[in-house]
């Protein structure tokens, strides 16, 4: 357990979402690890050292297997994996125990204090041009008044965030269609770039991206949900 205020071990999804949403201009490091992976031993020290060296950095340690919903939401397939984020924009993804790359990335983004270098997921394979992919994604986004891009099906969600998204829409009696992003890797990666949002589920209303699960939950709490989702 760390004594540093800016280094937090995440015990639950709600706390994770709350910490990330507090300051959308802040640079955050999300570090996924497990106790059994040997490279994580070194990376634990590296992450703690970065948090100590940069008090403005928010470092969140996520035990990948214990917090499976968070890991699944960010497509974590191996540990250690480090994500550098500003607000909801993914600045860098570093897989494996590359301490030098992590230090360089954190230093660059903190000292430049700009989001202009935001990187995006890889472009879709050349078998489908970016223009045709974007047109196809926009067609899907307009297939009904409310579209949910999720993992799995509404009656069989394949991650906790998608399950919560479906439950929220059903609780509010919102009619919606869905698209399973696990069924199409081009759409899965392309939508992150199109909407500048690195995670799923994604909520679309009248063809426009309105946010991820945390944003829509805030709309529900503030009373804005009914106005936005009225169709």
Description of the structure:
With 231 residues, the protein is an alpha/beta fold. It contains nine helices and eleven strands. It has helices at residues 13-22, 39-53, 68-73, 99-112, 130-141, 160-171, 185-194, 213-222, 225-229; strands at residues 7-9, 27-33, 58-63, 81-86, 89-95, 146-150, 152-153, 156-157, 177-180, 202-205, 208-211. It has a five-stranded mixed sheet. A four-stranded mixed sheet has the order 9-6-10-11. Strand 10 and strand 11 (208-211) form a beta hairpin. Helix 5 crosses helix 7 (185-194).
Question: In short, what is this structure?
Answer:
The chain is an alpha/beta fold and 231 residues long. It contains 9 helices and 11 strands.
Output the keywords.
single chain; 231 residues; alpha/beta; Glutaredoxin; 2 domains; five-stranded mixed β-sheet; four-stranded mixed β-sheet; 9 helices; 41% helix; 22% strand
Topology of this structure?
Blueprint: E1 7-9, H1 13-22, E2 27-33, H2 39-53, E3 58-63, H3 68-73, E4 81-86, E5 89-95, H4 99-112, H5 130-141, E6 146-150, E7 152-153, E8 156-157, H6 160-171, E9 177-180, H7 185-194, E10 202-205, E11 208-211, H8 213-222, H9 225-229
Parallel strand pairs: 1-3, 2-3, 6-9
Antiparallel strand pairs: 2-4, 4-5, 6-10, 7-8, 10-11
Helix pairs in contact: 5-7
GO biological process, one term: intracellular iron ion homeostasis
Protein name: Thioredoxin-like protein
GO molecular function, one term: 2 iron, 2 sulfur cluster binding
Helix-strand category: alpha/beta
Shape: globular
- Computed over alpha carbons, the radius of gyration is 18 Å
What's the rounded overall pLDDT mean? 87
Which fold name fills CATH's third level, the topology of the largest domain?
Answer: Glutaredoxin
User: Strand order within the widest sheet?
Assistant: 1-3-2-4-5
Q: What is the β-strand count? A: 11
Query: What is the CA-CA span between the terminal residues?
Result: 48 Å
Any guess at the CATH architecture of the largest domain?
A: 3-Layer(aba) Sandwich
Number of helical regions: 9
Secondary-structure element string = EHEHEHEEHHEEEHEHEEHH
Uncertain spans: 113-126
Function: Monothiol glutaredoxin involved in the biogenesis of iron-sulfur clusters. Binds one iron-sulfur cluster per dimer. The iron-sulfur cluster is bound between subunits, and is complexed by a bound glutathione and a cysteine residue from each subunit.
GO molecular function, one term: metal ion binding
Family: Belongs to the glutaredoxin family. Monothiol subfamily.
Keywords: Iron, Iron-sulfur, Metal-binding
């Amino acid at each position: 357990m760390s004594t540093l205020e800016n280094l937090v071990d995440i015990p639950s999804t709600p706390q994770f979402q709350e910490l990330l949403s507090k300051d959308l201009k802040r640079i955050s490091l999300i570090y996924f690890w497990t106790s059994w992976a040997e490279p994580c031993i070194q990376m634990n020290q590296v992450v703690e050292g970065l948090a100590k060296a940069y008090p403005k950095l928010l470092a969140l340690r996520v035990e990948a297997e214990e917090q499976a919903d968070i890991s699944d939401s960010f497509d974590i397939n191996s540990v250690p994996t480090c994500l550098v984020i500003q607000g909801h924009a993914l600045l860098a993804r570093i897989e494996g125990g590359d301490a030098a790359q992590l230090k360089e990335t954190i230093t660059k983004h903190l000292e430049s204090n700009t989001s202009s270098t935001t990187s995006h997921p890889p472009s879709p394979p050349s078998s489908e041009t970016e223009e045709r992919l974007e047109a196809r994604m926009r067609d899907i986004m307009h297939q009904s008044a409310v579209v949910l891009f999720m993992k799995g099906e509404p009656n069989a969600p394949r991650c906790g965030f998608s399950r919560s998204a479906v439950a929220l829409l059903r609780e509010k009696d919102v009619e919606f269609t869905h698209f399973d992003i696990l069924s199409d890797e081009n759409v899965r990666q392309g939508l992150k770039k199109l909407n500048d949002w690195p995670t799923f589920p994604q909520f679309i209303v009248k063809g426009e991206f309105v946010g991820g699960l945390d944003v829509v939950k805030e709309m529900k709490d503030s009373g804005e949900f009914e106005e936005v989702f009225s169709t």
